[in-house]
Description:
Layout: E1 9-14, E2 19-20, E3 38-39, E4 46-52, E5 59-63, E6 69-71, E7 78-80, E8 89-94, E9 97-101, E10 107-110, E11 116-119, E12 128-131
Antiparallel strand pairs: 1-4, 1-12, 2-3, 4-5, 5-8, 6-7, 8-9, 10-11
Amino acid sequence: MDKSLNGTVKALKSHNNLWVISDYNTYPLATNSIPPVMANDKKKMNYVLELHGHHLGEKVAFKSQDGKYICTKDNKISLATSCSDDCKFHVEATSGKYAFRTHSGKYLGLSNVNSMVLKDKREASELFTLENP
């Protein structure tokens, strides 16, 4: 991932044009106990990208507007207020899209009910684009 993206604000868009929610005040059902869900509008869906790793851009963390990170502790998606290794994803780029792999080897993906899940393989539902707000 291009190191110039560090600290930039981007919206995370799924393969089927749904946005990962980042404003949990607007969407009160998305709390610390519920994984981030998807919505079909872009309003308040922006994350600050934090690039990590030995080579800047090797890993990325997604920090929401209210300071929560998408994390994958115990192979479950959750939210956290600090950025641990569970909140850093290996970046795999393909055809202008990105896949985000956890340290346990699973991929962030989209379920058939439009919520975030972890998948064993990288397929179309595990590819995202980063778009300007």
